[in-house]
Amino acid sequence: MKDILNASWMTEMIRTITNMYNHGWDERNGGNVSLMLEESQVAEYAGGEALRSIPLNFRAAELEGRYFLVTGTGKYFKNVQYAPEQNLGLIRIAQGGESAELLWGYADGGKFTSELPAHLMSHIERLRVNPGNRVVMHCHPANLLAMTYVHSLDEKKFTRTLWQMCTECIVVFPDGVNVLPWMLCGTEEIGRATAQKMQTARLVVWAQHGIYGAGADLDETFGLIETAEKAAEIYMKIAHLPLVNTITDEQLHQLEGRFDVKAREGYLS
Ligand code: 13P
Ligand code: ZN
Q: What's the CA gap between 254 and 66, in Å, rounded?
């Protein structure tokens, strides 16, 4: 077997998680990331006999046999680069979809993130929309979080405000952002609710908690959250000031044409 720490997907995962920490999105153990991998990507680094089996406590039958590199529960993003084997795990969803076989990682006896229901259920839904989806990412960016205290949680209003804050927002997330009200985290219920929201958008805000993003790779998913968070930052800088200018719906339509994207149906006048 080759050294798993040299796998390109492993180095990219560690770099992305470090970058998320450096952006201030992941205090303490805040946030979690899952990256779906093909057997062909994993085979030369791990596989065969499982180190141990970990119950999922929910069913993910659609993902049977699928491989995921996932952050560990209670683990600090700042530490991942220094001790990947303690802070990350490579799992394969077992037959029947009720447990995970650990192939590498969680070396101090740990397990995958408490938000695995939201991750796996979101993977299932995003794969239906885009078979190329590979990443689900959750974090706690300050401005998006702050916005959920002072802005309506209506999805259309929330999305339109973000689109108006930076010209490129509508290009990066034309499907907008969906929003869940405050719910208890780490549960199957919030997992189901998040996955349902993932049917129509790649970004799902958890009010007073954080955000979920989904995408084809780590860069794309990071970039989605980065763009939404930048827009929320601008909103938090201007929300208390008199608004003199904005990006109009007419200009948003021009951007649709220029960048060949289609804004979420019914969101522009
Ligand atoms: P975990 O440490 O279990 O990943 O939880 C962090 C978090 O952000 C919960 O929403
Ligand atoms: Zn969280």
A: 41
